[in-house]
Design goal:
PriC, 3 helices, mainly alpha, single chain, 104 residues
Length: 104
């Protein structure tokens, strides 16, 4: 599990940097009266967080990872799939968001 935790840490660092950049863009759009939405992810996305920025979702992922590190290996393996799904959803959504901006 040590290698998994190392990979998760590296991925979370990347995700955090991308989220900060995306949130700055969202702040700018909101100042321009654009980007009117209630939350980044839908209620059925697997996140318990509901926010207009990526940062709180990244924090939830980081909290999940910290909780995962406290579990025994069997329980950690069970908790890993939902965590990876959240990470993947966040990374894909940020990439799609940035790609949509580059098209405009």
């Amino acid at each position: 599990m040590q290698a998994v935790h190392q990979q998760l840490q590296e991925t979370l660092q990347t995700l955090h940097r991308k989220a900060v950049d995306a949130d700055q863009i969202l702040d700018s759009l909101q100042r321009d009266q654009k980007g009117k939405f209630a939350a980044v992810f839908a209620d059925d996305s697997g996140f318990s967080t509901s926010a207009k920025r990526f940062g709180p979702y990244v924090q939830e992922i980081a909290n999940d990872w910290q909780s995962l590190k406290e579990l025994d290996d069997d329980a950690a393996k069970q908790a890993l799939a939902p965590l990876v799904k959240k990470i993947e959803l966040a990374l894909v959504t940020i990439a799609q968001f940035q790609q949509s901006l580059s098209k405009n």
